[in-house]
Structures are given as structure tokens and as C-alpha cells.
């Protein structure tokens, strides 16, 4: 039995160090960068009355689904994100760095892998014409939770978790902890993009989480629409178009940073 486990471990390590998997995983970072740039574009359209598609992941993928070149990019996005999700899971399993925080690193890798797996599946669905709105899906799930005993508390807890993730992104940006994800010296420009991008994405996620909390307290699915709802809520606030423009430009900075991460990521 122990011999089989050891063999499985060696196979996982070989997979983790596969040049083909590494190159495809790096493409996953670039794909994420493209999606964030499209979200930023849609956010700026929302800020200044452009309307159109939802300013979130599904809206970005829908933009790509509009033509042949976009469809090819969707399949490349699905492939890259799937490889990156696989790499994250393998990294969690074969982590040899040791230390007391190994379990934390493994949990973070698996959670990150799950995010990229969802993006891979969403991109594939839009590529074959069966993509769905993130906002409607989020509200549907929230509604089912609210219909159950204790559902309101659960929705608030989900909101607080999302707020926590947003705060972590902001902290990671302000303290430049994202540099731990990079190898070599990517330069001052990449570092500045990382700071601005992480803070902007953190602010957007924190707002999404707060709206989930409001949905739980009010027992209403309206506020729980995800990123698109959060950005449109920000637009309707005092000086909203300017605040949303700042967030949109910050998300664009995060997108460009992800392209740099595709090259400099520590894999």
C-alpha cells in the first residue's frame, strides 16, 4: 500500500514539473488577465451610460462569444484555466516546502484551483453557446438559500467570507505580498500594477460581500447579484461614475498584472 502511495506521489511530482503543464498553466494567468480587461471595459461602459452586457465574468465571456476569434480565445481560456486549476491541486498535494503553514498553503491552492476550474467551465459553456448570466445564477442560488431555515444567516456568512477575501486582496496589494507569487525581478511597473490591481479588485469583492450581507438581512435576492450588481450600485452612489471609473481602471491594472504574472509566476 505504501509503495502505491509513494508511486502516486512520484507521478504527481512529475506532473507538477511537466514543462507542457507549466506552459499551459501560465496561459491560464494570461486568460484571467484578458477576462479582467474585458470586465474593466464593461465597467467603464456602465460608469458612463454605455449599457450592454453585464460587467462581470459572464459579460466578459459573452463579449468573446460574439465572433470566431473570440470563440477561439474562449477555448484557449478554458484550456489554460483548466491546466492552471490542475496545477494548483497538484501543488497542494506535492508541496514539499514543509513548515507549519503547509495546510494553509494547500487550502489556498485548492481554493484558487476551484476558481480557475469554474472559469474554465464557464468559458467552455460560452464557447458552445450555452453560457449563462452570472447575476441570474447568483440570485437563483441566493433565493434557494433564503427559502430554507437559517438561510438568511448563511447568506450573511457567505457575504462576510467574500468581504474577507476582498480585504485579503487589498492587504496583499498594499503590503506587496503578491511578490511572493513572482520569481525574479519583474520590475517597478509590474509591482505598481500589482498594488493598484489587488486593491481595486479587493474593493470590488468587498462591495459584493457587503451586498450579500444586505440580501441576507433584508431576505431579498435583489442586492445579491454579484460583481455586476456591485458595480452598478457603486455607479448610483454620489460621484458614482468617477468611483466606478477608478475601480474599472484598477481592474484593468489587475488584468495587465496577470499578463505579467503569466511570465513571472513562481510555478
Indicate the overall shape: globular
Using only C-alpha atoms, the radius of gyration works out to 19 Å
Largest sheet, strands/sense/barrel? none
Unreliable runs: none
Please explain how this structure is put together:
This protein is 78% helix and 0% strand. The protein is mainly alpha-helical and 267 residues long. It starts with a helix and ends with a helix. The model has no long low-confidence stretch (mean pLDDT 88).
Features:
267 residues; mainly alpha; 10 helices; 0% strand
List the helices and strands and how they pair.
Layout: H1 2-16, H2 19-47, H3 57-64, H4 68-94, H5 102-127, H6 134-146, H7 151-174, H8 188-218, H9 227-235, H10 240-264
Helix pairs in contact: 1-4, 2-3, 2-4, 2-10, 3-5, 4-5, 6-7, 7-8, 8-9, 8-10, 9-10
What's a quick, concise take on this entry?
The chain has 267 residues and is mainly alpha-helical. It has ten helices and no strands.
Amino acid at each position: 500500500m505504501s509503495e502505491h502511495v509513494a508511486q502516486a506521489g512520484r507521478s504527481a511530482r512529475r506532473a507538477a514539473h511537466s514543462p507542457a503543464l507549466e506552459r499551459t498553466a501560465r496561459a491560464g494567468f494570461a486568460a484571467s488577465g484578458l477576462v479582467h480587461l474585458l470586465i474593466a471595459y464593461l465597467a467603464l461602459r456602465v460608469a458612463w451610460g454605455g449599457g450592454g452586457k453585464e460587467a462581470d465574468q459572464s459579460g466578459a465571456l459573452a463579449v468573446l462569444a460574439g465572433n470566431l476569434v473570440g470563440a477561439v480565445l474562449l477555448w484557449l481560456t478554458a484550456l489554460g484555466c483548466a491546466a492552471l486549476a490542475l496545477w494548483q491541486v497538484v501543488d497542494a498535494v506535492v508541496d514539499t516546502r514543509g513548515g507549519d503553514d503547509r495546510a494553509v498553503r494547500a487550502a489556498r491552492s485548492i481554493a484558487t484551483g476551484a476558481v480557475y476550474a469554474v472559469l474554465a467551465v464557464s468559458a467552455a459553456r460560452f464557447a458552445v453557446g450555452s453560457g449563462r448570466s452570472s447575476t441570474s445564477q447568483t440570485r437563483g442560488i441566493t433565493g434557494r438559500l433564503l427559502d430554507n431555515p437559517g438561510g438568511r444567516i448563511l447568506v450573511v456568512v457567505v457575504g462576510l467570507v467574500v468581504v474577507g477575501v476582498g480585504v485579503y486582496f487589498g492587504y496583499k496589494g498594499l503590503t506587496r505580498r503578491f511578490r511572493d507569487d513572482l520569481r525574479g525581478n519583474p520590475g517597478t511597473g509590474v509591482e505598481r500594477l500589482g498594488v493598484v490591481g489587488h486593491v481595486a479588485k479587493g474593493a470590488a469583492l468587498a462591495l459584493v460581500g457587503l451586498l450579500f450581507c444586505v440580501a441576507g438581512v433584508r431576505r431579498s435576492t435583489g442586492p445579491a447579484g454579484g460583481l455586476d450588481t456591485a458595480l452598478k450600485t457603486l455607479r448610483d452612489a454620489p460621484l458614482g461614475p468617477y468611483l466606478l471609473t477608478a475601480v474599472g481602471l484598477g481592474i484593468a491594472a489587475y488584468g495587465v498584472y496577470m499578463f505579467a504574472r503569466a511570465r513571472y509566476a513562481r510555478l
